[in-house]
């Protein structure tokens, strides 16, 4: 069911301890900072977070990690020049890391949303990231079996929503939003603008409202 | 044994910009290309408009333009290195699974990557040194290496300690197996494949002098 919600605090209020939370964004582009701040305030802990990175600087996901609320990161690129909070937790053995090639991360999220039980891909074959995984020789190359990544909740950022929950994004801030919206059981979206139903051209809608549960407008 | 020396095309080793200019010149007109973070990004400075090259960035865009400056800077428009960039006329945006399907589905003509090591048969190691205290990060390296039709590597031939990065077998963790087709270095351009290494041209050295630096049998292309 689709709900339009007044505050980010109410939008994330149902997130439970131990949840798997997908968070959109590639670096800061598309990162739903206001929803992450609300997740911080709501106190949910013991979280597994799915994001491309593991936080930058002293904001958003980085703070959630710093405060010890994340028990596990599933991501492709945790190490950055300003990922000091993740780095410290990782070196202290206080956070678990599942490192996933970026295309596998995207496709595993997509697979979850599409009801696919797993897929074979050549990416990673023969590398340490494929160790212990089933392999098959298909279409002339060795391929590795990868499983979907499901989530309880997705927090994403879009540019606009209409009254049916249809979403459009802005430039490279789109990144993981559409696939995370489909993969999570409950999708919470922060938007910059709400438009009336019929206010978005149906030909350009990127995420249909069927994937969306909570929408909150942020300034 | 006397090796062929006529493939030397420069009196001295190539600098980073000269090498980037050479890679740019070698890209077939009309290609769709992904340039990796770091040295490969320099290649974009030397692509000519008449080559009609379309740049892909894996965070979700085709038709990427030059780095943004001043008022052009927009936090929603960045490249894979998280640097603000611009969009060219005809650009398109798409989500991450579509962006990686462009690589993984074999639609990308060329990617240019940096490397720690490349093996004689084109194995690539460029994501992790394997050092016990290093925090691993892979990003899109494995997808690019495995998915692009041609994988070009740009690197210095030797480490700071003078050890060849073109090796018989990679000692660093692998990114992909048998994926590299060309290696552009300051001292030579190598063509790699199942039959071993051929040298297309050398810079500031003869093939014989080059062979003394590289622990892999070389022959002229």
Short note summarizing the structure:
The complex is a heterodimer of chains A (219) and B (221). With 219 residues, chain A is α/β, with parallel strands linked by helices. Chain A contains 6 helices and 12 strands.
Explain what the structure shows.
The complex is a heterodimer of chains A (219) and B (221). With 219 residues, chain A is of the alpha/beta class. The longest helix of chain A is centred in the middle third of the chain and has 13 residues, at 102-114. In chain A, strands 1, 2, 3, 4, 5, 9, 10, 11 and 12 form a nine-stranded mixed sheet that branches. A three-stranded antiparallel sheet of chain A has the order 6-8-7. Chain A has six helices and twelve strands. Chain A has helices spanning 8-11, 33-42, 61-66, 84-91, 102-114, 177-183; strands at residues 3-5, 20-23, 47-50, 70-75, 96-99, 119-121, 135-138, 141-146, 151-161, 167-168, 184-194, 214-217. In chain A, helix 5 (102-114) crosses helix 6 (177-183). Chain B has 221 residues and is α/β, with parallel strands linked by helices. Chain B contains four helices and 14 strands. In chain B, the strands form two sheets. In chain B, strands 1, 2, 3, 4, 5, 6, 9, 11, 12, 13 and 14 form an eleven-stranded mixed sheet that branches. Chain B has a three-stranded mixed sheet with strand order 8-7-10, with no helix packed on it. In chain B, a hairpin with a 3-residue loop joins strand 11 (180-184) and strand 12 (188-191). Chain B is globular and about 50 Å long. The mean pLDDT of chain B is 95. Chain A binds chain B through residues 26-30, 52, 76-80, 83, 86-87, 90-91, 97, 99-107, 109-110, 121-129, 169-179, 206, and chain B through 57-61, 74-78, 82, 87, 93-97, 99-101, 103-104, 128, 133-143, 146-147, 173-177.
């Amino acid at each position: 069911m689709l709900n339009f919600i007044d505050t980010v605090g109410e939008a994330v209020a149902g997130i439970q301890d131990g949840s798997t939370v997908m968070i959109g964004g590639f670096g800061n582009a598309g990162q739903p900072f206001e929803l992450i701040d609300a997740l911080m305030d709501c106190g949910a802990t013991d979280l597994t977070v799915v994001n491309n990175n593991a936080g930058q600087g002293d904001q958003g996901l980085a703070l959630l990690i710093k405060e010890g609320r994340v028990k596990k990161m599933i991501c492709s690129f945790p190490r950055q020049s300003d990922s000091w909070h993740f780095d410290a937790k990782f070196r202290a053995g206080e956070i678990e890391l599942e490192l996933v090639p970026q295309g596998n991360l995207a496709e595993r999220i997509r697979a979850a949303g599409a009801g696919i039980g797993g897929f074979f891909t050549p990416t990673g074959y023969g590398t340490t990231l494929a160790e212990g995984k089933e392999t098959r020789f298909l279409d002339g190359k060795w391929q590795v079996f990868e499983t979907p990544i499901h989530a309880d909740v997705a927090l994403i950022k879009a540019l606009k929503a209409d009254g049916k929950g249809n979403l459009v994004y802005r430039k490279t801030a789109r990144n993981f939003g559409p696939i995370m919206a489909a993969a999570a059981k409950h999708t919470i979206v922060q938007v910059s603008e709400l438009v009336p139903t019929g206010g978005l051209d149906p030909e350009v809608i990127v995420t249909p409202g069927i994937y969306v549960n909570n929408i909150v407008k942020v300034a | 044994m006397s090796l062929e020396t006529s493939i030397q095309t420069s009196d001295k080793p190539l600098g980073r910009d000269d090498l980037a200019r050479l890679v740019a010149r070698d890209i077939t007109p009309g290609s769709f290309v992904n340039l990796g973070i770091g040295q490969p990004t320099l290649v974009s400075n030397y692509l000519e408009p008449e080559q009609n090259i379309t740049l892909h960035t894996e965070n979700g865009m085709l038709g990427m333009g030059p780095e943004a400056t001043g008022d052009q800077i927009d936090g929603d428009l960045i490249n894979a290195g998280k640097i603000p960039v611009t969009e060219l006329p005809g650009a398109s945006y798409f989500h991450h699974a579509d962006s990686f399907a462009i690589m993984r589905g074999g639609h990308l003509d060329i990617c240019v990557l940096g490397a720690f090591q490349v093996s004689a048969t084109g194995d690539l190691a460029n994501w992790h040194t394997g050092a016990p205290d290093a925090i691993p990060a892979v990003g899109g390296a494995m997808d690019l290496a495995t998915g692009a039709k041609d994988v070009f590597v740009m690197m210095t031939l030797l480490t700071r300690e003078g050890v060849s990065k073109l090796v018989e077998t990679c000692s660093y963790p692998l990114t992909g197996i048998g994926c590299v087709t060309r290696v552009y270095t300051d001292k030579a351009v190598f063509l790699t494949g199942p039959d071993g290494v051929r040298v297309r041209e050398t810079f500031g050295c003869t093939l014989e002098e080059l062979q003394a630096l590289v622990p892999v049998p070389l022959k002229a292309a």
